[in-house]
Automatic annotation (TrEMBL):
Keywords: Hydrolase, Protease, Serine protease
Protein name: Prolyl endopeptidase
Record field: compositional bias (Low complexity): 41-56
Gene Ontology molecular function terms on file: serine-type endopeptidase activity
A GO BP entry: proteolysis
Signal peptide: none
One protein family per Pfam: Peptidase_S9_N
Primary role: Serine peptidase whose precise substrate specificity remains unclear. Does not cleave peptides after a arginine or lysine residue. Regulates trans-Golgi network morphology and sorting by regulating the membrane binding of the AP-1 complex. May play a role in the regulation of synaptic vesicle exocytosis.
Matches recorded under InterPro entries: AB_hydrolase_fold (IPR029058), Pept_S9A_N (IPR023302), Peptidase_S9_cat (IPR001375), Peptidase_S9A (IPR002470), Serine_Peptidase_S9A (IPR051543)
Coiled-coil portions: none
Residues covered by the Peptidase S9 prolyl oligopeptidase catalytic domain: 626-842
Length: 847
């Protein structure tokens, strides 16, 4: 039930676990995480609610996950770890500025020790600044704020005392930034906060006429939610674990029952944790090996730094043990209840140290197991499903290095010794796992295997000189990862543009491999929750654009399949909807796939229907054609929904990312998206006046770039937490997560990348031209895409654009990258976005 030692990406997201499969066809992680990120998740694949950041003990991060989790990847409807198929409380959390919440927040701080209190008080100080400045800002203003221009020099290249990467330009190049003053790392500059509040006040005024439409959309989306629901229980030891949701409550109730019993035990009620908080994200929830304790991690700010707590499940009381460091939220038990492992972040939000905590001791005495000094690499770890080994890794975007630890040798009073499998080699990646007692399996791109292959070695001789192919490399299959059990192995990957699962006997994998056949060609499939190492049953999730998420058990011996649950979607008749696969020709002739879904009775080709086009195209993350009830309001109004599988993603394998749209080919992402829009217009599916587009995080970069390049193609755009200030952000190593992404985007401090990155950076290429209507959103505590990026972008757009179309900025002053943690509040946020879009398309009040 936990997320294992993953790092972060700024424009990347914490990828969703298997239970997300089918939750949203615009939420790429839904299938991505299921198929290639984690072996299994804490939440059942048929659960009604999952978190992007929670998974099980045997979590082995895949290569694509590492890229996403270290950067700015985002969930692709903007709230990637919130599902609209999940119910939640019908209240919005009160702002921290209320005196009641201030008292509660302070009280919590005083209970958790001096260091945590300091952190909490610092956060409270931000809240007090927000409250103080709010007193002088009207609830609504009828004009957008005019941002003051304060030209500031920004240096690109060598700067004394700063890490500017390899071979920075010397002397450095200089660019001027009129809105650099909006950067506020501490989030408490009264002038900056006031500007954000004025932006929010103007947005509220400009959209006040949509209040009824927002309410209708919210109620419509809620009507497709089974508000009281329960995940499919999964076995873990002598218990069946699950979580459930209750109508009127915002968060999960995590529970269990002993095998053979109907008596429920509450493991953790997140609704209780959330009281008095404006944000509540439980990332890890990990039962101890004997199931008497549970470890969990909590972020109450949205900044993605977590404290770790331990709960006695017999008494319901918290232990004195608390890990008050700034952790990534991951926590894994050792072979028994004596120790846990976790990772911490540096000041730039990079996961860089792995620790061992001995229960019953102060975290100040914890043992530093591993530290990664190279700022382009991040530290991670996972525990094998066999429970015998802990793997500790150091990974960059394209290079990895792993150590292993026999957990049976760990002593609480001694520092364990890690054994290196294979020292890092530039651009060579590998991911190990434990197999057949005396062997390791390895997924790697060694030997020019661009789409990765599976190798093996003995534990006694783990270096690459002794690796052997498990079966021959097949370039048509992109291997994402393995799920290893005692008697069988599941390989996760892609073929033909879709996710697949391959099964093989553990004793003779090379000669027993077969792919699981699935009912629809266009589908999403991935692992569910599989905690037991000794089993013959594999749980998986399945969905398509017209099939809600299903949870299945597959018996590898009998080949029998059992449907355990299809996620209930009230008021949904699948017979009314159809999906298709389309292709657009990019300027270089590459065929770019698109997935389309529509109401059969409301769409007729040639009638130029309103159309919503979504894109992402970064980090090798795939937008897969899964089900998403959030878009039923669009479909039911006759809007066609299309996913553009542009280069930069991983839909067509690793080469779709590199060399497809990485480094000096990144512009292919943008020209692919434009080609998709042009194809849809040319084939009369839509026309520019009816075409809406959206992208989030790194997808916001896509939106910003195409608006500069071809603003005439689109009527309205939504850019969520958009990564638009590419040059400034990627040149500054003090900004969280930048150094780790030089290997994804390039480093503008280098002459090799400066001009090319400048050529597409949205903020730097705003022109004096007409732009479509635009809604931009962000979060004050976002560590991946800082709030000042969308704020600066909007200010400059208003200065340059030559039309009267609205450009609105909405900054949530209580959340980070992943928007509201309260799922009902999340629905309201999505209703806000959709209402703006429908208004600009002339569809308000029409259904």
């Amino acid at each position: 039930m936990k997320f294992a030692g993953g790092s972060q990406t700024r424009r990347g997201q914490f990828m969703r676990d298997a239970s997300q499969v089918g939750c949203g066809f615009v939420e790429i992680a839904s299938a991505f995480a299921a198929g290639s990120v984690f072996s299994y998740s804490s939440s059942s694949s048929s659960s009604s609610s999952t978190r992007a950041t929670r998974s099980s003990t045997c979590v082995k991060p895949s290569r694509a996950y590492r890229m996403a989790s270290k950067g700015r990847a985002s969930g692709h409807d903007g709230h990637e770890h919130k599902q609209l198929l999940v119910a939640g409380a019908q209240r919005e959390d009160e702002l921290r500025s209320s005196s009641k919440n201030e008292d509660s927040f302070l009280g919590s701080a005083l209970k958790i020790g001096a260091k945590s209190a300091a952190v909490a008080l610092g956060a409270l100080a931000v809240g007090l600044v927000v409250k103080a400045s709010l007193n002088g800002v009207p609830d609504m203003v009828d004009k957008p704020p005019i941002a003051e221009k304060k030209p500031a020099q920004v240096l690109f290249g060598k700067v004394a005392g700063e890490n500017r990467g390899e071979s920075p330009m010397d002397p450095p190049r200089v660019r001027m930034d009129d809105y650099f003053w909006m950067r506020d790392d501490k989030r408490k500059d009264p002038k900056v906060i006031r500007h954000l509040q004025l932006e929010n006040a103007y947005t509220k005024y400009a959209t006040k006429h949509l209040e009824a439409e927002r309410k209708a959309l919210y109620e419509e989306m809620l009507s497709h939610v089974q508000e009281t629901d329960e995940s499919v229980p999964y076995r873990h030891g002598q218990y069946m674990y699950y979580h459930r949701n209750v109508k009127g409550l915002s968060y999960d109730i995590n529970a269990r029952k002993r095998v053979g019993s109907e008596a429920e035990e509450i493991v953790l009620d997140e609704n209780e944790l959330a009281k008095g908080l404006s944000h509540c994200d439980v990332r890890a929830l990990e039962p101890s090996p004997d199931h008497t304790l549970v470890a969990y991690s909590l972020d109450n700010m949205g900044y993605e730094t977590y404290k770790i707590y331990f709960k006695d499940l017999a008494t319901g009381k918290l232990l004195n043990d608390r890990i008050d460091r700034d952790t990534t939220g991951s926590v894994t038990w050792g072979i028994n209840n004596d120790v846990v492992f976790y990772t911490t972040q540096d000041e730039a939000h990079r996961s860089y140290k792995v620790w061992m905590h001995r229960l019953g001791t102060d975290c100040a005495t914890d043992v530093e197991l591993f530290a990664e000094p190279d700022e382009e690499f991040s530290a991670t770890y996972f525990k094998s499903r066999s429970g015998k080994y802990l793997f500790v890794g150091s990974q960059s975007t394209d290079t990895s290095e792993w150590w292993y630890l026999d957990l049976s040798t760990v002593r609480p009073d001694q520092k364990p010794e890690l054994v290196c499998m294979q020292a890092r080699r530039d651009t060579i990646e590998y991911d190990p796992d434990h197999w057949n007692n005396e062997r390791f399996l390895i997924v790697t791109n060694q030997d020019a295997a661009k789409n990765f292959k599976v190798m093996f070695c003995s534990i006694a001789a783990p270096s690459s000189a002794y690796w052997k192919d498990l079966f021959p490399y097949d370039p048509s299959i992109k291997v994402d990862g393995l799920s290893v059990f005692e008697d069988f192995i599941v390989m996760r990957g892609r073929q033909g543009g879709y996710r697949q699962l391959w099964f093989m006997n553990s004793k003779d994998p090379a000669n027993t491999r077969y792919v699981l056949d699935l009912p629809e060609k266009a589908h999403v499939v991935g692992p569910g929750v599989n905690k037991e190492f000794t089993t013959s049953v594999f749980r998986f999730s399945y969905s398509s654009m017209t099939t809600p998420r299903q949870t299945w058990d597959y018996d590898v011996v009998s080949k029998a399949r059992t449907l355990l649950k299809e996620q209930p979607v009230p008021h949904f008749d699948r017979s009314l909807y159809s999906s298709e696969r389309l292709y657009a020709a990019a300027p270089d002739g590459t065929q770019v796939p698109m997935s389309m879904v529509y109401r059969t009775d409301k769409m007729k080709k040639g009638d130029a229907s309103p159309l919503f086009l979504y894109g992402y195209g970064s980090y090798e993350l795939s937008i897969d054609p899964s089900f998403d009830a959030k878009y039923l309001p669009l479909l039911d109004r006759g809007v066609i929904v299309v996913l553009a599988h542009v280069r930069g993603g991983g839909e067509q394998g690793y080469t779709w990312y590199d060399p497809g749209a990485r480094y000096l080919t990144k512009a292919n992402t943008f020209t692919d998206f434009i080609a998709c829009a042009e194809h849809l217009i040319r084939e009369k599916y839509t026309e520019p006046s009816k075409l809406a587009i959206e992208g989030r995080s790194a997808g916001g970069l896509l939106i910003g770039a195409v608006l500069n390049m071809r603003p005439d193609l689109f009527a309205v755009a939504i850019a969520g937490v958009p990564f638009v200030d590419v040059m400034n952000t990627m040149s500054d190593s003090t900004i969280p997560l930048t150094t780790g992404e030089w290997r994804a985007w390039g480093n503008p401090n280098s002459a090799e990348f400066y001009e090319y990155m400048l050529s597409y950076s949205p903020y730097d290429n705003i022109a004096r031209q007409k732009y479509p209507s635009l809604l931009v959103t962000g979060g004050l505590y976002d560590p991946r895409v800082a709030f000042w990026e969308p704020s600066k972008w909007v200010a400059k757009l208003r200065e340059y654009k030559t039309d009267s179309n609205p450009v609105l900025l909405k900054i949530d002053l209580d959340v980070g990258h992943f928007s509201a943690s309260d799922r009902y509040r999340y629905l309201r946020e999505r209703a806000f976005d959709l209402a703006f879009m429908l208004d600009q398309l002339g569809l308000v009040g029409k259904k």
